[in-house]
Amino acid sequence: MNKGKWLFLLVLVLMMIPSLALAKVKGIEDYPRVAVLPLQNKAAATWHDFGDYAGSATDNLAFELTKTMRFECIEREELQRIVGEHSLNLTGLVDNATAAEIGRLSGVDYLVMGSVASLTAKKSSGGVHSRRIEGGAGFSNNTVAATVLIKVVNVETGRIVLYGRGKGKSDSAAGAVAAKGTIVTLGSTSVSDEQCENAIEKAVKDAIHGKDGILSQLDGK
Q: Which of 102, 120, 104 is nearest to 112 (CA)?
């Protein structure tokens, strides 16, 4: 091969490098673009009305990630629109192939998947059920404790690159009156759904900013 052809090939390769770099998934430390999937409820005791709260919990997770100034989160509505148009399954339980397809269609580098691993009340045991109420109801002192797990998955490889665990608690005052809404009963203890939500929100924040959170892993602590 003559010198002219070698020079032509070299120029061609150099022209391709920028496009290859743009196609490559950003590193987790390079302000990557991420999509937050709906928070799942994997607690041993089921909170039946959790589905009504999952959307706001997911938004709260995205908000906390954005506050770190380490991630660019796409809006939940935009992600739902994209996956809806392509009939994909938008849950926290996607396989590697689906994760890669979501990443390609939405232009994200990573998927953030979260779940409520446990939801309990102090000095209670057993399952969780809920009932709708009209008006108020009295509550005794109790503490709701939640544990949230978060994983950040590379859409190209399906590999988990970060794993965070957070815990949160919400205390109720003696004789507090629940607003019109749902009573959630954990074992023999009745709590409001708002108290469950508060505990989960604190756990989400801890899973990002706490000692076992994803920021600690990013910073090597």
A: 102
